[in-house]
Structure formats: C-alpha cells, structure tokens
Amino acid sequence: MYAVIRIRGKVSMRDEMEDTLMMLNLKNKFNCTFVPETDDYGGMLKKVKDFIAWGEVDEDVVKEVLQKRSKIEDVDKVVEGLDKGMSLGEMDVQRSFPLSPPSGGFSRSTKEPYPKGEVGYRGDEIIQLIERMV
To answer: Cα(4)–Cα(22) distance, rounded to whole angstroms?
Structure first.
C-alpha cells in the first residue's frame, strides 16, 4: 500500500487538482492517508504529484500512524483490511490523519520533485518523512 502526504497548499492549484486531492481525502496540508496500489490510485497520484509525497509503507508504519494520529479503536483490523487491498472508505473508518510539520523542517524545496525536493514519488524513503512528522 501507499502512504500519501499532502505537502503543499492550495495556492495556484487548478480545480481539477483540488478535486483529485479531495477524492484522496487530503483536504489540508500535512494530512496523510493510505491507499492500495491500484492503477486507479496510481493515476490520481501522478496527477497531483506536485502537491504530495507518496511511497510504499509496511505494516509497522501504518500501525504507528493509526495509533498516534487516529481515533480508530481496532488498529489491527484496519491494517489487515489495508493489506487485503481495501481502502479506508470501504472499511468506514477515518480516512485521513493529521500530521505535524516535519521535525527540523524540510531539508529541501517543497516545490521541486524528489530527490531534489520533497514532493513526488519517494519509494520506501517516505517512511523516514512519516517518522519525522508523527
């Protein structure tokens, strides 16, 4: 599954980009959500790549975010559902989780694509960013 974090705000954003972010349940800066690795979600992520950071995560990271930043009582059940390819909306649970700005701030530009900047596909290095934001 992918972890998706909104890095940038609404300034100079087209309406279709904002609609896509709403479909991903990323209404505010520094919100995080988890989505399955499907072609549909992949297209949505590529469309808003200039406003988000995303990458693959493992169960431990998902559990940490859910335990610290959500109101979900049965975290293990939600992680199990995510592993099976279900989305958070299908499980009727909280769909996005507010994170803090990264401790120590961003080390690179929030306007440049990864690896020069912070936005875009990061692979498994998204885990380090999440750990700084939880």
So the answer is: 13
Contact 122, 131 (CB under 8 A): no
Query: 65, 130 in Cβ contact below 8 A?
Result: yes
What does the alpha-carbon distance between residue 10 and residue 71 come to, in Å, rounded to a whole number? 27
Q: Which domains does the chain have, with CATH numbers?
A: 2-133 (3.30.1390.20)
pLDDT digit string, tens, across residues 99-129: 999 998 888 888 898 989 999 999 999 999 9
pLDDT tens digits for 45-68? 999 999 999 999 999 999 999 999
Tell me which DSSP letter residue 111 carries: E
Contacts of 54 (CB under 8 A, 6+ apart): 2, 3, 4, 5, 45, 120, 121, 122, 126
